[in-house]
Predict the 3D structure of the following.
Amino acid sequence: MSLVERDLKVIWHPYTQMQTALPPVPIVRGEGACLYDENGKRYIDAVSSWWVNIHGHAHPYIAQKVSEQLKKLEHVIFAGFTHEGAVELAERLLKILPANQQKAFYSDDGSTAVEVAVKMCLQYWHNKGEKRTKMLAFKNAYHGDTFGAMAVSGRSAFTAAFDSLLFEVEFIDLPDESNIQSLKSQISNLKSNLACFIFEPLVQGSGGMLMYEAKYLDELMAHCRKEGILMIADEVFTGFGRTGKPFACDHVTEQPDIMCFSKGLTGGTMALGLTTCTQHIYDAFLSDDRMKTLFHGHSFTANPVACSAALASLDLFLDNSTAENIKRIETAHRNFALKIKDHPQIKTTRQTGTILAMEWETGVSTSYFSSLRDTLYQYFLAAGIILRPLGNIIYILPPYCITNEELAYIYSKIEQALEEI
């Protein structure tokens, strides 16, 4: 029995209608920006395997560090115990984050990092004796699939079955020149009820790679600060160089109270979540009253092997060659976007850092469920490229090690698709 046949007997895949889906592609190994199936076919991983892989697959340096850690300590309960990897990772990461970030809380992935952040904000006000339970978020936001993260995400087909169970959230438009003043007024009117404002800085990934300008986010954040509203920056997707700077919040002057990380944190090696916060947030939980404790944890919190992968990934990320690769990809994306922007099949192009999105013209409004998605996905897969369209939106989000030749091949196949589809 083949691997695919065995898979179909026992596996339920994510975001997949199993009755109509095509069989999965059996991947057996990875190297650099590429993956290889059981027949030896090569695929350029142009979406970094759900945006997690920043240094390339099976990176030998990360593999070495993980192997060394496995021979020393694979796991230890993180309540009442600690270990070198968790402490060193927190120390090193906090040094390169906005200066107000002082404490690190570990969890399992991006969604749980957001859960922690949401609970921190809600309990912060509870511990201070103030009843603030409403959250503020952007329309079309995506923060994860666990309940708290889902609640602060935009209402859509993904949340429809659970909408009646999700807590109250006030959703606002992305800020721009035309609405920034009205958004600030809206926030001022709600401030006494708001626990916090959560946002994906600069780019809404799953919402369709929707992008907005840093100066308007900065202005919105400054207004929230003036009104005493806590802020959560969800950098699960945008962190670790995706926007051209180490973190998307490096593009703004204002600093969030809480930040969330995962995806690129371990270089895509394994799951790890991290939520950082200010001393002010942390202090609200310090008390002789045990009921003011943050009652949250995970069995694999601060797993030593995951921390070793994250430390190795951080070594690579801080190497000068990574910054050079990010600039190289930015430039290549920019040049390609200029080349195709006037094509009749292209409705619009968007770019921030290493993220390039192209909205295909379909004659109808943009939709995650556009039938064009499956056509484009299979077209590129046949050409040996993994691109996972968000409906009629194609985006390129490669590992930083991708070569110029691999990028050129992706661009050429997109141009070919524009003429053939």
